[in-house]
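Good morning,

Both structures are done.
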Amino acid sequence: MPSRCARCGDCVRSCKYGALSQDPEGQVQADRSRCTLCRDCLEACQREAIDIVGREFTVEEIVAEAEKERVFFEQSGGGVTLTGGEPLAQPEFTGSLLEALKRRGLHTALDTSGYAPPEAFRRLSEKADLILFDLKLMDDKRHREYTGVSNQLILSNLKVLDNLGKPIWVRFPLIPGVNDDDQNLNAMADFLSDLKSVQQINVLPYHKGGVEKFRRLGREAEFAVFEPPSSEKVEMVIDFFKEKEFQVKLGG
């Protein structure tokens, strides 16, 4: 944690790869392209100001963790959700994990942006019991502007998913000034009304939780910060979709 850093430079001196340096004020800077995750800096830091988040798991290890919650799943009707990041970015691992969970009789949900090669998207969707599908913007130009990619593959995959007959929960991240306008809401409602397998729309109000994460990664310049929607705006969007006869939930 940066607040614990004493700017002593021990971590910088411990790094054999030149991944760490200090600015004139003593603030530690990281060149992540040089980092090998050797963890020498963690050992050198006496104040526990550095941490490496995340670890690798095998399919068997994840299934074993899920099995510990089986009693809870059976009582709640829940299961295992593969989310991210984007689980379809690791299609072979995701497929193997879904198959292993299915063999154990555990319910599975796949949370995806839908931005994946059609063959892989279809193959993995068929292995899951429920698909949580993120849908942000209907206009392709605006989608490119805010996400950097076209939405045509995403919309095409959503149609394919609907034809599979898999239960779909559409997740709509509500971002003021980006996708909360009448044009986008109406276009989304029109598109979804033609799909048979959409069970509900989950409205997810934007929050600033990712700002600190990007700051710690040294990538805050890449992160566009917006204001969260007001409670009135959230209620308006929920009421809009309800009037279009969709099942709607806040969050989820």
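Second structure follows.
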Amino acid sequence: MNRVRILLVALAIMAFISCNTEEDQPNVPTPYELVIPKGLPPMETFIPADNPMTVEGVALGRKLFYDPLLSDDNTQSCASCHKQENGFSDPRPKSIGIDGSVGTRNAMALINLGWNQFGFFWDGRAATLEDLVFQPVTNPIEMNTTWPEVEAKLNASEEYVQLFQKAFNVQRIDSVHVSKAISQFLRTLMSGNSKFDKWYNQQVASLSDQELRGFVLYTTEQADCFHCHGLGGLITDNKYHNNGLDTDFPDSGRAEVTGNQGDVGKFRTPTLRNIELTAPYMHDGRFFTLEEVIEHYSEHILVSPTLDPLMELVGEGGAHLTPDEKADLIAFLKTFTDTDFATNAEFSDPNE
């Protein structure tokens, strides 16, 4: 009888310990499997060790990206200036903040950011995606709030408290984990399924005669686009160049970050992916059409002390393309349009 009693007590203790152990086990987020489009490089080495991709983190980041709660008056979200149908860029030359304040630069497209290792924004002032996310919230001409205020609003939401627990095992929401979540979502915004990709990667598409002529212009010193934008992959070198827009610089660009006078007038090269969707163009949104962009590189490159040597390769003042060549080049640039990216439901507002 004593043995039976001892055995029952032991089983009860084991069941109690097992129950408590299960309750005490922290939530384990589900690893997120990135499906990299053909032609783009692996991303694993670019993902910070302290912010691994998870299903819960990406979903939370997507929700936060579209939530105006991150602004002072709850009217403006990240998506207000980064619209999916515009390649996650802003169709306005300069974005407008919550109180009507007009920004100083055009909002860059959020495409394939997960591979960038040369800094973010036009001037590279943010070293990582996580650093990038911190800035618009507190910028006085964007969301114009403080992180303590945002944290207080999020912690007052039972839904967000639960979502952050599932994604990061945190009991209290802070700005670091907000940044991590949005960064995870941004890393999923991959574009690599354009007509060009299907042709270049030897899949199914073919280019028209006009597009092929544009391809030749792009990849030779006739138009000399490939030196800064490359071909295939990201279609940008993500580096900083003075592309001959000005001779004096109301916006000194990269020099604002480095303090180096040799960087005056240099701005980060944007990707040409979805360039058809991301007008207006240049750091200040001065060009509204691709025709204007090509006209600049053809006829209006201005010489200044920091003009990139690559600009000099196209010839004095520009490439001097004929009207037909300009049309051919634009036709080729439009092959970078990825309609799947612009309509992908996994990137859209989860509340719609």
